Amino acid sequence: MSLTTEWIGNYIGIRHKLDGEGGSRGPPHVNDAGSPKNETEVGMTEGVERKEQGAGKAGLERAVSDHYGGEALAERILGALEEMGVSPDRVRPADLVPVEELHIGGREATEYLVEKLKLEPSHHLLDVGCGIGGTARHVVERYGCRVTGLDLTPGFVRTAHLLTRVVGFHRKAVFHVGSALSLPYEEAAFDAAVSVHVAMNIRDRGRLYREMGRVLRAGAPVGLFDVTTTGREGLNYPVPWAETPATSHLITPQEMVERLEAAGFEIEETEDRTAFAIDFFRRMFEQAPESPPPLGSHLVMEEGRRKLGNVLAALEQGAIVPFLVVARRR
Predict the structure, then answer these.
(1) Where are the alpha helices (DSSP H) in the chain?
(2) Which pLDDT score is estimated for 43?
(3) Residue 50 lies in a domain
(4) CA triplet 198, 106, 261: central angle to 5 degrees?
(5) Which of 20, 32, 101, 310 is least crowded, fewest Cβ atoms below 10 Å from its Cβ?
């Protein structure tokens, strides 16, 4: 048995024991661990109960979740770190960056966006589409505030829980499985929100933004970074967020702004990050080793080089725009 397998086994046993003992309740919208009201924490459990959804929405969400997968991902990541000489009990947040920041621009883009939210230690941030928790752990480390992350993919949420526990941030950041179109939180529960490369899979963008607005307090900021379309041809599949156009729902930058305004947000800043993205991808491909290192995007994304190459080509042809928006709930 490897150290990684033993460590994860021990952690799962501890979590199941703690879950069985119950816990104190916190504020009305979350318990003291940050869980949604009346919802069991799902990070280390296999069965996740979801409310019944409409057939079309449920089908799309299942397809998106299946696309991202994530089963046994924590074991693969910690195993790769072991191969590099880093044991599970000595992992630092910086060790995880190569595998946890897979959106355009990586950690640099995360820092650039989150800085605009002006977070303080007393704040509670919602990360919609949190993936394996990279943005959440960065926020805890850099700003010291609490973070609740939500993602549609159970494997990602399980991995986020484990990696956050490994680096010691589990008292500040928690993660739940759920839909961004039906957020399991009460009104005005959060002081800020962030969402990075999530909306491209969501057809009902207006509902997404209304749900985010519902759970934010009045005046709270939201930071969004998504891929948008220009309407031109040039985007070929597969790409990191979709194997085919069936689960890719891009809108234009102007449509994104309009739907945010219609959902009750005041736009404070927008930015076309195309030049940054092209430079990022060109540098990435130029510096890529012939064979991948133990820890990298290949642990999360199949056919990564092909998918990222399609994104770069679409950027260079002017078919897509990485678009950043900072808005504030009215």
Answers:
(1) 3-21, 55-68, 73-83, 97-100, 106-115, 134-143, 154-166, 205-215, 253-262, 274-287, 304-316
(2) 34
(3) no
(4) 40
(5) 20
Asked if the structure places residue 238 within a domain, the reply is yes
**Tokens 């693969």 map to which residue?**
76
Largest distance between two CA atoms of the chain: 57
For 149, phi then psi, to 5°, come to -110, 145
- Give the up-direction half-sphere exposure of residue 139: CA atoms within 13 A in the CB hemisphere: 35
Beta carbons of 14 and 6 less than 8 angstroms apart:
no
Query: No. of H helices and E strands in the chain?
Result: 11, 7
Residue 38: inside a domain? no
The model's pLDDT over 266-308, given as tens digits with 9 standing for 90+, comes to 999 999 999 999 999 999 999 988 888 899 888 988 888 999 9
Q: What is the pLDDT of residues 16-55, one digit of tens each?
A: 433 433 332 233 344 444 455 443 333 333 333 333 334 4
Q: What is the pLDDT of residue 57?
A: 60
Per the structure, the count of domains in the chain is: 1
Cα 215 to Cα 25, 36, 185: the distances in Å are 19, 12, 6
Range of the domain at 96: 3-23+56-329
Dump pLDDT digits (tens) for 239-270: 999 999 999 999 999 999 999 999 999 999 99
The pTM assigned to this predicted structure is 0.82
User: From CA 267, how far away is CA 269, in angstroms rounded?
Assistant: 6
Pull the structure tokens for residue 208. 């997404």
Position 283 scores a pLDDT of 95
CATH of the domain at 260: 3.40.50.150
Residue 288 within a domain:
yes
* Residues sharing a CB contact under 8 Å with residue 204, sequence separation 6 or more, in sequence order: 57, 181
What pairing do the DSSP bridges indicate for beta strands 124-128 and 146-151? Answer: parallel
